[in-house]
Amino acid sequence: MASTLSSRPQLQHLTAQLDELRQKGTHFRLRVLDDMQAPICTYDGKQVINLASNNYLGLTADPRLREAAIQATRDYGVGSGAVRTIAGTMKIHMELEEKIARFKNVEACVVFQSGFTANAGTVSSILGKEDFIISDELNHASIIDGARLSRAKIKVFRHKDAAHAEELLKEIQNEPGRKLIITDGVFSMDGDIGPVDKLCDLAEKYGAIMMVDDAHASGVLGKNGRGSIDHFHCHGRVDIQVGTLSKAIGALGGYVCGSKDLIDFLYHRARPFLFSTSHPPSVTATCIAAFDILEQEPERIDRLWENTRYFKQELARLGFDIGGVSTPASETPITPIIVGDGRRTMDFSRALFDNGLMATGIAFPTVPEGKARIRTIMTSEHTRGQIDQALDILDKTARKLGILV
């Protein structure tokens, strides 16, 4: 007699937790994209203006990237067939890493399967239980997980508060063990920029390792999208730079940049690198083409920022809470619309979708209780007409629901 998983008691605790999410109004289902990631696309059979993707520069659908992927598949096949340390390091993988290293003005680079594994794999491999991590309270989950896996002692400083970070460093300056300061370059839920320059000053003063996760800064901040290190003119002062190939670059993966010895060490000790098959040639070639475009077309980033400034200005004019009082003020194309209550936020997101706008609701535990928001992300490819239409939908829907009065 066949049995189903749902009839077994071993996982009933998961069902109970899902029921609790439904009761709170924060349970969600995955929306399915029917076509390409673009300013206007089709989710669940419905055409919507898309303010939810990380496709900052519109590269996911760029014909040059698609052609690069097709050609690499013809030349090298669909997969590498092994992990990097056994038989899966292809010439094209090395070409991408060398290109990223030159772009970031560092000695070397290694590509991971995702930004998450790049962060978690690096932090967990370079530190041990005798060491200390000084981490911003709003750092990405991958940094938090990597810190826990390292077994180092974790000290959390108030968001962007360099003075508090220094207090923590003073407390442990005479303790044995290495000290690592970590911050996001751009914080993914609020869109504000980390104080990279001030933290670099602290790293130098206290002899700490300096690490920046530039996932949402790469392709957005700095010359040609070189990130927060370039934005703050901190080249040579950041020991470990983490970036992503999944957002502005338009494809998939993460990377770590730094000294040759750092990268060589990660080859030997970073577990996600050691135990995961390397990228398909098609993805690798796509990323190479994307970095070429960053170098050749800085006007894409100019358009991104022009759209961002206009969108923020109009949201504020309409009366939306876009941060700056009880939450950090956005400084990038990530612009949260703060609602507060989780259920109300998710209801707002669903109503926006019904009215033709894809804008995702974010609630606890991704953000703190009482800080639920609609997270919007602008891209270089949105037209002024599309932005105005999105603003009109946001305004009318918010007023109908009593979010704006």
From TrEMBL:
Keywords recorded for this protein, A-Z: Acyltransferase, Biotin biosynthesis, Pyridoxal phosphate, Transferase
- Per the UniProt entry, what is one GO biological process? biotin biosynthetic process
Q: What is its EC number?
A: 2.3.1.47
Q: Which domain of life is it from?
A: Bacteria
Thylakoid keyword on record: no
Pathway in which the depicted protein is active: Cofactor biosynthesis; biotin biosynthesis
Cofactor annotation = pyridoxal 5'-phosphate
Indicate whether Acyltransferase appears among the record's keywords: yes
Q: Which residues form the Aminotransferase class I/classII large domain?
A: 47-393
**Reactions catalysed according to its record:** 6-carboxyhexanoyl-[ACP] + L-alanine + H(+) = (8S)-8-amino-7-oxononanoate + holo-[ACP] + CO2
Which residues fall in a coiled-coil region?
none
The EC category is transferase
Modified-residue entries (N6-(pyridoxal phosphate)lysine), positions: 247
Q: Which GO terms describe its molecular function?
A: 8-amino-7-oxononanoate synthase activity; pyridoxal phosphate binding
What does the record give as the function of this protein?
A: Catalyzes the decarboxylative condensation of pimeloyl-[acyl-carrier protein] and L-alanine to produce 8-amino-7-oxononanoate (AON), [acyl-carrier protein], and carbon dioxide.
Please report which protein family the annotation says this sequence is part of.
Belongs to the class-II pyridoxal-phosphate-dependent aminotransferase family. BioF subfamily.
Assembly and partners are described as: Homodimer.
What is the name of the protein in this document? Answer: 8-amino-7-ketopelargonate synthase
